[in-house]
User: Fold this.
Amino acid sequence: MADKFIIIDGNSLVHRAFYALPQLTNSQGFVTNAIFGFYKMLAKVIEDEKPTYLAVAFDQGKKVFRHQDYPDYKGTRKGTPEDLKPQFPVLKDLLKAMNIAVFEIEGYEADDIIGTLVKEGEKAGLVNLIVTGDRDAWQLISPQTKVLLTRQGISELEIYDVQTLAEEYGLKPEQVIEVKGLMGDAADNIPGIPGVGKKTALKLIKKYGNLENVLEHQKDFQGKKLGESLANYAQQALLSKKLATIITDVPLPIDLKQCQKEEPDYSRFLALLEELEFKSILQSIGQEREEVKEYLTGEKDGFSASFLIITEQQELADYLSRGNDNLVLYLETEKKSPRDLKITACGIKFAEQEAALCSWQKEEELKAYLEVLKPYCEAEKIKKTVYDAKTVILALACYEIKLTGVINDILLMAYLLNPSRSKNDLLALGQEELGCLLLPEGEEKVSFCVEALEKLEESLAAELVEKEMLGLYQDVELPLVAVLAAMEKTGVKLDPAILEEIGKDLESWIARLTEDIYQLAGEKFNINSPKQLGIILFEKLGLPASKKTKTGYSTNAEVLEGLALEHEIAVKILAYRQMTKLKNTYIDGLSALLEPHTSRIYTSFNQTVTATGRLSSTEPNLQNIPIRMEEGRRIRRAFLPSPGNLLLSADYSQIELRVLAHVAKDEVMIEAFNEGQDIHLRTAAEVFGVSLEMVTKEMRQAAKAVNFGIIYGISDFGLSRDLGIPRSEAKQYIEKYFTRYYGVRDYLRRTIAEAKKKGYVTTLLKRRRYLPDLQSRNYHVRSFAERAAMNTPIQGSAADIIKLAMLKLYQVLQEDEWRKTKLILQVHDELILDVPQEKVLEIGSVVKEIMSNAYPLLVPLKVDLQVGPNWYDLKKLGEKDA
Assistant:
């Protein structure tokens, strides 16, 4: 079989990669998406085709010889995007480091270089494969040359050869330019003959063979518009054919030896990949090629796989006895149950000593090690560096060890420095710090993690200082770990009988709704199948449908809400979905996670997940139990206090609006809050230009939607949809709002402008959120980032404030007289406490005092207190009592 010669259309593939992939950047802000996509495509083609020869052709300069014949050639093309321009030279450097031949010459296009390379390949008896997104290359097809045409951006390649071209278009390769002469090419601004499209051009060339014959037979179409066009634009057609013709004799010295595929210059190649931060590519190369493992495992950059394996209890005791006051502790854990974490790996390291790894086969051996380690873990004077302190605390607690003295939690530190980072896991962080690009496994992985912890503590701490977040870390986030760990260990009592009762009611609702839907549809079908539902709604019932896609009609909530006014079946389906979600997610989900021995739920509070700094809750998510529907609220009835206790709810009232008033320094809002006015009533009066007494219920509701919508960057379209009013009316509401609350208007404008300049926004406690999408070319992506820029300082500051309150409250609850009171839940702006009945009034007073003074604002922080026998039946704790 003949050797293969792959010829890449560089410009075509670079542009396709750039537009196919989202904006990717390295840590220096250099955009890399085109390079990344190009390399992935190139690597796949090399792997699939295994060529002997390989070359990439690029355009050089905008003016080519075709401009002499037609100055407007490619005149309608937009300029190269600014984010793409700097990627070209870096890509060419990468190709050269890979020892891949790169060809470009002034005055000629990449197509012409490709045509010349093809002819050289054919002379040498090679099988040529042209990889391009440009159909112009079809004219180069021959028995020895095929075109691999890119589809789906750059992810798929479709092969075109002599036979494919004949079957699909009825053309020979040399007839491609004949068709172009007639129909032109809008992409290259080749004029062709006005009014002649693809269908007509193909028909004419199939009949007459070439353009010249078509023009000779123009009399066949006399009296018709086509005949007139052929006569009037004959010379333009011939010029178009000439412009579309790829030349195959570019004056470029070509020696096929320079195109022979060789191994990369690994030192240059890998260094460039590292600079571009293409970690997935680096890892895949390292896994495939032994010769680059030394470079990728970081042994040249300071990471050494040497470590001490401890196999006996006495060995560990001896190692620890030689230690100092700075201990790195690394644990790997496995969750056996909500309250049982099993330690599966343990690595330790004192400063200036080698890492030590404990090796065991049986649980008894692990317990023996932990017995030796216990006094070191519990010694406050020994300062610890760990990864994910909360998990380490909870895991050691399962072995009756109380961890103290943690000063460095690498997970928390990394999260604060970049809360939007896709990966905050220790392996990814260690890769960045140690330059270890191929991850070790087994015992070497544990050693790597131990060393990564030690290296990261210094660099991350320095970065926190630089970015003014050391105080946030040391005074808020790190001490909060103990609070969350205590809440998780306490759990929340749940009554399974009440859950079961609510579940049965929901089943009855679902059954009735199912029958109603079948009756309205006129037949039984799978309601949970979007495809079947789409057919019922849009084909059988004839309801107005959104655009049909390959997978069928859209039947999402937004579509159904729009149809609810058209037909009752949409109302029933929405209710059916809500009921089934309540049953499946909350009734069945909570029941499955209930600890049978304690009848409690043990959720996990996540401190390092949200981009705003808010806490989240998982397994189960107790922050997301629906409260808008009565059926959803009823689920809260199953959440109970401990025997003899009551549940106390302390909820910040309108905290985000109060934070907005503070940061915006808006005089009208500040006055309203300081005078204790209903902010929505005041806003309605301001927006509608009436007195407070004249504000109607509808006016207040509209004002409330505007107040909260402003925080989230709501548009007139969004407000019109939420309130069911014309868009013009919604626009007037927003304009009037900003006219009166001009402090808010100016603040939001200023925030977006500063965020675009700095690349991030901050909260009151200097928490950062980076927003690179503020520079996105995509309007929708950029708009989302602008809304995040407006919202994050508000929502994030509110999150910071409630964390401060939790810290102060937890500290008070450690005092002997309050120890029986437990903080058990945090749900956004609300804290739930399990309080002895006789202490409710006292605790309520303490909680209100702490929360109201958690952070000094220009307006008061208002706290609503409620108490009850469960989370549903809560009643206001009066001002007199608390």
Notes: Residues 779-813 form the longest helix (35 residues). The chain is about 50% helix and 15% strand.
